[in-house]
Amino acid sequence: MKFHSHKKIITRGIGLGIFLLLTTYLLAFVIFGRPTGLILVLFIVELLFIAVLLIIFFRQGQQGRALVVPLAVGILLSIVTVLIAIFIGTTLIHAPLPPPESPAWSSGSPVIGMAVSTDEISTSSPEARDLLIGGLTIASRNNQFAAAIPYYDQALAIDPNFAEAWMAKGVALHNLGSYAEAVGCIDRALAIDPGNPAAWSLKGTILDSWGRPDEAAACYRKARELDSRYQPI
Length: 233
Known about the structure:
Layout: H1 2-32, H2 35-59, H3 62-65, H4 68-93, H5 126-140, H6 145-158, H7 163-175, H8 179-192, H9 197-209, H10 213-226
Helix pairs in contact: 1-2, 1-4, 2-4, 5-6, 5-7, 6-7, 7-8, 8-9, 9-10
C-alpha cells in the first residue's frame, strides 16, 4: 500500500511538471511568436519552479520530496521543447533572403514570401526588430498576412526608417491583393535604401501581379544593375 501511494505521488508529480511547464511555454510561443518572449518566460518560470522545488525539498516530508525528481524531469523536458521551438523559429525566420530565381520572388506568384537574416536588419531598435520577426512568424503560419501587419505597423511607429519592415508590410499587402498600398510600402523602403536590389525586385513582382508588366520590367532591370544575381524579366 505504501509503495502504491509513493508511485501515485510520483505519477502526479510527473504529470504536474510536464503539464504546467509545457502548457506555459507553448502558450508563450503562440502569444509572443518570437524567441525573445520565449526566453523571458522561460527564465521567469524556471526561477519560480526552482524556488518551489527548494521549498518542497527543505520543508516537506518524504512524500513531498518524492515530487522533486518528477518535477525536475518536467522542467527538463519543457526546456528541451522550448529550445527546439526556438531553433526552428530562428532557423525559419533568420534564413537569408531567397535568391531572385526562387518562387518567393518570381513574377506571377499569387503569394510571395520574405525572410531576413540578423545582419540584414537595419534598425537600431531591438523592439522594432522583434516586432518584425514576430510579424514574419505570424505571416508564415497558414498565410496569416492580415494578422502580421499590426506587427509591422508597430515596428514602423518605433522606427519609421526601418526599410525591412516596409518591405514586409508590402509583401503582406500584396498577398492580400492590395497592390497599390503594397507598392507604396516598397517605395517607402526604396526612399530609405534606394540601393536595395531585393526591394526593386519585390516592387517588380508586385507590379507584375498588378498587371503593369512594363513598369515591373524596369524594376527588374534596376535590381539587376545593383546585383547581378537578379535576372531581368
